[in-house]
């Protein structure tokens, strides 16, 4: 035991860091199909070494792993993924992206946070739990790991539906979470849904001389008109019917959002934001409870040095919608089509990209959610922050639908973690505390099942 009365986890933490170093070195980029079977093999070996029975199933892009160990009335299902985003642009990394590098208290590398760091910190905590219980576990732990999350998890919903009986659990621990700069744990009980689309417009078989702009319409003007019609200057989506199905937040949701600290200052500072949307007072409501439309990229015509007087033949815009319960992704696409047609933009084609994700939100009063909150306060020594929903998206809804259990997210991310960007990182402090949290959270769930 340490002086504070907490168990000494230094050996487990160091072993976890070694595991992270090995996994970061594996370039498991799902968008490019790199090293996915090999990384699944490495994850399988780590789990089997801790007594898990691991079943492997083919996915559309990468293997799906289902592991199981332990016994007890309470069953915890943990969800993680072993794939990562591409490292591009490589020149913006300060250190090699697939080499775990420690600098100024941060661990840098692709996957250091999302999601290999999350996985190995939990595995290190489980090792400590087994040691505490003489090699056993006080609860049943199921672990689902996939290698397709960064490309929209195309296999996951069907897999969950097909294997629902085998994956039944009393609670699901989600694959991510965050810690504030002050060291306060932030838990999330939901995710927004997402629809990724491309708007395309073509007016000719090839580019034309720009003088013909007097008699030929311009696809970039058409697309600009389309994009400008989708939201107002405050960010409010203006597609008719878009907000009709939004589920009003519960009183508990509203109270939780009202208790969230700050007004987004950490986010704006970390990314040097110059144009925040909304007022400071509605920052958390917009981020957690409000649907939003984003323009991801606007493409077409000439973008090189100097001028090229050309009228482009075609162009495209990539957009995404972030949805809240009970918005239906397919209905959103239908509403968008109707809206564009009404604007005289029937020639603007809508192309659906990747898999849609439904929005999901757990009941904040559920005992599983409350146990996660209580343990977080115990481990971190500060009141936990409970957020009804992350502003991000992921395949949480199928878990709630098919596993039939509440979901909570708590992990080791940080506001300056550069997830999906160059110099992705996790604070070593947060990794170490994440190991301790994994130990005590699973211990508490095991004790709860005995009561």
Task: Give your account of this protein's structure.
With 451 residues, the protein is of the alpha/beta class. It folds into two domains: 10-189 and 362-450, Aminopeptidase (3-Layer(aba) Sandwich), CATH 3.40.630; 192-246 and 291-357, Alpha-Beta Plaits (2-Layer Sandwich). The protein contains 13 helices and 20 strands. The strands form five sheets. Strands 1-2-6-3-7-19 form a six-stranded mixed β-sheet, covered by helices on one side. α3 (116-132) packs across α13 (428-450) and α4 (156-162) runs parallel beside α12. The longest helix is centred in the last third of the chain and has 23 residues, at 428-450. The model has no long low-confidence stretch (mean pLDDT 95). InterPro entries: Cyt/Met_Dipeptidase, Peptidase_M20, Peptidase_M20_dimer.
Please state the second-level CATH architecture of the largest domain: 3-Layer(aba) Sandwich
Report the average pLDDT across residues: 95
Number of domains: 2
The amount of beta strand, in percent, is 15-25%
Please count the beta strands (DSSP E, at least 2 residues each): 20
CATH homologous superfamily designation of the largest domain: Zn peptidases
Secondary structure class reads alpha/beta
Q: Helicity, in percent? A: 25-40%
Distance between the termini: 26 Å
CATH topology of the largest domain: Aminopeptidase
- Summarize the main sheet: 6 strands, mixed
Instruction: List segments where confidence is low: pLDDT < 50 over at least 5 consecutive residues.
Output: none
Count of individual helical segments: 13
Overall CATH class of the largest domain: Alpha Beta
Write out the strand line-up for the largest beta sheet, numbering strands in chain order: 1-2-6-3-7-19
Q: Which term fits the overall shape?
A: globular
Oligomerization state of this entry? single chain
Q: From the alpha-carbon coordinates, what is the Rg to the nearest angstrom? A: 23 Å
């Amino acid at each position: 035991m340490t002086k504070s009365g907490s168990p000494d986890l230094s050996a487990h933490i160091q072993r976890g860091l070694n595991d992270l170093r090995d996994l970061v070195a594996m370039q498991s980029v799902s968008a490019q199909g790199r090293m996915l079977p090999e990384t699944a093999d490495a994850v399988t070996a780590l789990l089997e070494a801790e007594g898990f029975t691991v079943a492997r199933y083919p996915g559309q892009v990468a293997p799906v792993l289902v592991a199981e160990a332990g016994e007890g009335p309470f069953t915890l299902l943990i969800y993680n993924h072993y794939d990562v985003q591409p490292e591009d642009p490589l020149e913006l990394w300060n250190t090699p992206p697939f080499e775990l590098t420690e600098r100024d208290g941060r661990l840098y590398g692709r996957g250091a946070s999302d999601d290999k760091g999350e996985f190995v910190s939990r595995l290190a905590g489980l090792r400590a739990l087994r040691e505490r219980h003489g090699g056993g576990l006080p609860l049943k732990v199921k672990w689902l790991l996939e290698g397709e999350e960064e490309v929209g998890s195309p296999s996951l919903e069907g897999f969950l539906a097909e294997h629902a009986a085998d994956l039944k659990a009393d609670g699901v621990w989600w694959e991510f979470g965050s810690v504030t700069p002050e060291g306060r744990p932030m838990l999330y009980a939901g995710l927004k849904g997402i629809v990724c689309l491309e708007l395309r417009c073509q007016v000719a078989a090839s580019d034309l001389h720009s003088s013909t702009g007097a008699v030929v319409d311009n696809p970039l003007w058409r697309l600009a008109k389309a994009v400008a019609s989708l939201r107002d200057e405050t960010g409010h989506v203006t597609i008719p019917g878009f907000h009709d199905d939004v589920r009003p937040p519960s009183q508990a949701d509203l109270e939780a959002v009202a208790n969230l600290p700050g007004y987004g200052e950490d986010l704006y500072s970390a990314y040097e934001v110059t144009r925040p949307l909304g007022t400071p007072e509605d920052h958390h409501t917009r981020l957690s409870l409000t649907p939003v439309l984003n323009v991801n990229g606007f493409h077409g015509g000439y973008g090189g040095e100097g001028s090229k007087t050309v009228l482009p033949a075609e162009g495209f815009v990539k957009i995404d919608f972030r949805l809240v319960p009970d918005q239906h992704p397919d209905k959103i696409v239908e509403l968008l089509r109707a809206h564009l047609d009404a604007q005289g933009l029937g020639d603007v084609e809508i192309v659906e990209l990747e898999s849609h994700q439904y929005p999901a939100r757990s009941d904040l009063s559920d005992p599983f959610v409350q146990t996660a909150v209580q343990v977080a306060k115990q481990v971190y020594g500060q009141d936990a922050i409970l957020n009804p929903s992350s502003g991000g998206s992921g395949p949480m809804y199928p878990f709630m639908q098919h596993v039939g259990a509440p979901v909570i997210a708590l992990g080791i991310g940080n506001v300056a973690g550069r997830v999906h960007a160059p110099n992705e990182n996790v604070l070593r402090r947060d990794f170490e505390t994440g190991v301790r949290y994994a130990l005590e959270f699973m211990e508490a769930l095991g004790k709860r099942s005995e009561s």
